[in-house]
TrEMBL record:
Keywords tagged on the record: Methyltransferase, Transferase
Domain Methyltransferase type: 120-217
One Pfam family matching this protein: Methyltransf_11
Secretion signal span: none
GO molecular function annotations of the record: S-adenosylmethionine-dependent methyltransferase activity
Keyword Cytoplasm found: no
Name of the protein in its database record: Methyltransferase domain-containing protein
Keyword presence, Methyltransferase: yes
GO biological process: methylation
Alphabetized InterPro entries for the sequence: Methyltransf_11 (IPR013216), SAM-dependent_MTases_sf (IPR029063)
Length: 291
């Protein structure tokens, strides 16, 4: 992230503008902190990775899941690849194809103001969606993808993927889905894959997704839910329970969508996963509490 790109993020406490105080490395923000020009809060930055959340607000399942992801970040992708066919009776690629088309990436067109198209993946993890997204985007389109995660370990794996595969226009930061460090209506697509069921307040996280999305843009959320239209063996139900150890009620949170949500589509894409798509109208959704 360079100084110019700093204008794309805001203070998660008050949504004030941020300024840089620290060292640069090859023109990029590296070691130091970001200071809010409105409330004066300082947000640390280490090795070029901003930490835009308050530790005391990370609690319950948020803290538990972060410990797990930080503990085994390098094993996440291999385990997903190997276990998906066993648990889901499908491949990882087909699972991801089940929700990717809901983002409608192929319909994106250049902005009239000449600014880049902006995508936001909440809970980007190791960046497994990056190659699929790049494949779906129209050729030559100027795109920025912002990836947010609470796990430093998973973001470290994502950085390795970006360096290895040569992905461009990717901006990573540590942040909390309950208090996104972005201005209202600042993204052309917003999505979250495999995490909302583990948030301590899914309603607030969904409201934050709605707040930062451009009016009318698809907002896509994917997580665990057992397909109720099928009969399963005791072993399959036990496997699902093990997968969703973090909650007693893993389901599509359609009832938690913010007021004004339109075009709601809730679908079962595999026997263990749903895909929830919605949009917000031209009127601003009620802002979530700041701080």
């Amino acid at each position: 992230m360079n100084v110019q790109e700093l204008g794309q993020i805001v203070c998660p406490d008050c949504r004030g503008a941020l300024s840089w105080a620290g060292r640069l490395r090859e023109g990029q923000l590296h070691q130091g902190h970001l200071r809010c020009e409105r409330c004066g809060m300082r947000w640390p930055m280490k090795d070029g990775l901003p930490r835009l959340y308050r530790e005391e607000q990370v609690r319950g399942t948020d803290r538990l899941m972060r410990v797990i992801y930080d503990g085994l970040p390098a094993l996440h992708d291999p385990m997903t690849f190997l276990l998906t066919p066993v648990l889901q009776a499908t491949t990882e690629a087909r699972l991801r194809e089940g929700y990717l088309h809901r983002l409608e990436l192929r319909s994106l067109r250049p902005r009239p103001d000449g600014q880049p198209i902006r995508l936001l993946e909440i809970g980007i993890g190791s960046g497994a969606n990056l190659p699929l997204i790049e494949k779906e985007l129209p050729p030559g389109l100027d795109v920025e993808l912002w990836g947010l995660d609470l796990s430093r370990g998973m973001l470290r794996e994502c950085r390795k993927r970006i360096a290895r595969k040569g992905h461009r226009g990717i901006h990573l930061l540590m942040g909390d889905a309950h208090t996104l460090p972005f201005a209202d209506h600042s993204f052309d697509r917003v999505f979250e894959i495999g995490g909302v069921g583990g948030y301590h307040d899914p309603r607030r996280a969904l409201a934050e997704m709605a707040r930062v999305a451009q009016p009318g843009t698809p907002i896509v959320v994917v997580d665990e839910q057992l397909d109720s239209s099928r009969d399963y063996s005791l072993a399959t139900r036990a496997a699902f329970r093990l997968l969703t150890f973090y909650t007693r009620d893993a389901h599509c949170p359609q009832e938690l969508l913010p007021p004004g949500a339109t075009g709601v589509q809730a679908e079962q894409i595999t026997r263990f996963y749903y895909c929830l798509t919605f949009r917000m109208g031209a009127e601003r959704p009620p802002l979530t509490a700041v701080g």
